[in-house]
Amino acid sequence: MVERKIFAGPKVRRIRNGLAVTQTAMAEALGISPSYLNLIERNQRPLTVQLLLKLASVYKVDLEELQSEPGNNLAQLREVFADPLLSGELPGDQELVEVAEAAPNAASGVVKLYRAYREQAMRLSDLTVLMAGEGQAPAAGARLPADEVRDVLERRSAYFGALEEAAEAFFVTLPAGERAQVLKDWLQKERGIGVRILPVHVMPDLRRRFDRHSMRLFISERLAAADQLQEIAIEVSTLALRDAIARELETLSLSTQEARRIVRFELARYAALALMMPYDAFLSAAKASRYDIDILCARFGCSFGQAATRLTMLQRPANAGVPFFVMEVDAAGHRLRRAGAAGFPHARFGGGCPKLNIHAAFLQPGQVLAEAAEMPDGSTYLTIARTLDGPHAPFGERVRRTALLLGCEIALKDSTAYGQALSATPPPVAIGPACRLCERKGCLARAEPPVTRPLGLDEMVAGLSAFDFQ
User: Fold this and answer.
1) CB proximity list for 116: less than 8 A, separation 6 or greater
2) So what family is this one in (predicted)?
């Protein structure tokens, strides 16, 4: 009888290592010398039928596994090396056969890495098509003016020192009294502009409109009192602080006139908040109330969103408050604005995690939610979230509701009234910068697979997430 010669040394070695058995012990169990087993494992001697039967008897080895060809790994490796990037690397299949046979685990790793590379390339291709539109590649560096403004303002401090000083200098010239009336009187006396609140049917689509012919500023009655005050303050800032706004505008690197126009309006909004909540008085009140936003709203006649935004601006070098950052989103998750005491923390915090309490706030309108949120790198933040209602809506029209998140480093929580709420709550919520960048496994809130990992396309396993990955 002619024995079939089978060279399966790497498989025998894997079996032995998996059982944590030495060559000497295995050789003794198989009735051969350790040196002969060493030659078998190095594919310098074949496995005879007798040895196969002995392996199956002693170690319960599947004979088909030992005799099988490296077909699956070999086919997958052929696919990998058929890629144009690698097609010229090998003259034939012999080396692939050797890799698949001698190092099947390494071969599987190469296949997984290649699949991840292909998946990433497909995602980038889809993104390019989406951004290009109509099959035309976007021009390098092309951005909409609004996107340019957003990038510039989000990455710098929310504090504009020259504008703060100009607002303070102007504020001290105003008489004491109810803030809205004082600003109306200034407009009338200094610029001959009257302020009138118009009903919805007269001005249904605008918040504010200045009529140069009649010299009147029209404000929509759909706005709450705090929002009406802000619109009046914006008009005052545009007129009284024009030079300061222009100086701050020159410090920003903007590429188009449209971007400059948008930033000019944003700076006017900033100045309006500075007039409504003067720096020193507001910071003193914030520290005294331990940054309780509702108390600040009552004291300064402002809205929750206005007070929270103003807190991010309190970063005067000689007299700074807690370095907060702020983010606002709508119910669909669209980002409306982001800002911070030192710029919005894109890299460390991200703000795109669906587990943040800013999204849970929509389920409890008007309630302030405070919790700790921990990033994968261990950095932890105090997050305060609440919904904001837009202009009053007539019957039959849906209210515009957004949610705002105010955050700071967890080390500063005891400086705030909201830090006390964390002592009786569960551990910090485990969040990530965004689903596409987060590698937390088993996340029930995951909405997208991470771009850094291949999808776990294993028919035998299903994870908790809708997008399993390896």
Assistant:
1) 453, 454, 470
2) Belongs to the short-chain fatty acyl-CoA assimilation regulator (ScfR) family.
Whichever domain contains 150, its CATH number is 1.10.10.2910
First to last CA, the chain: 49
Q: Give the integer Cα–Cα distance in Å for 59 and 25.
A: 12
Kindly write down the DSSP assignment for every residue of 135-178, as one continuous string: T-PPPTT---HHHHHHHHHHTS-S--HHHHHHHHHHHTTSPSS-
The pLDDT, as a whole number, for residue 275 is 96
User: Residue 228: what residue type?
Assistant: Q
Q: Roughly what angle, to the nearest 10 degrees, separates helices 257-276 and 161-171?
A: 50
pLDDT of residue 1: 40
Q: What is the largest CA-CA distance in the chain?
A: 117
CA 162 to chain centre: 31
Say which amino acid occupies 420. Answer: Q
Region at 406 (left for phi over 0; alpha for psi -120 to 50; beta for the rest)? beta
Domain membership flag for residue 272: yes
pLDDT in tens, 51-87: 878 877 787 766 666 655 555 667 777 777 777 667 6
Q: Poorest-confidence range of 7-21, 368-382, 423-437?
A: 7-21
Residue at 135 is within a domain:
no
User: pLDDT, tens digit, for every residue of 325-384?
Assistant: 999 999 998 999 999 999 999 888 989 999 999 999 999 999 999 999 999 989 999 999
Please report whether residue 77 resides in a domain: no
Q: What is the DSSP string of 94-105?
A: HHHHHHHHH-HH
- Kindly report the number of other CB atoms within 10 A of residue 231's CB atom: 20
- Number of domains the chain is built from: 1
- The DSSP bridge pattern shows strands 216-220 and 208-211 to be antiparallel
Residue 456 belongs to a domain: no
Q: Whole-prediction pTM value?
A: 0.70
Range of the domain at 176: 146-276
What are the backbone dihedrals phi and psi of residue 435, each rounded to the nearest 5 degrees, phi first? -55, -40
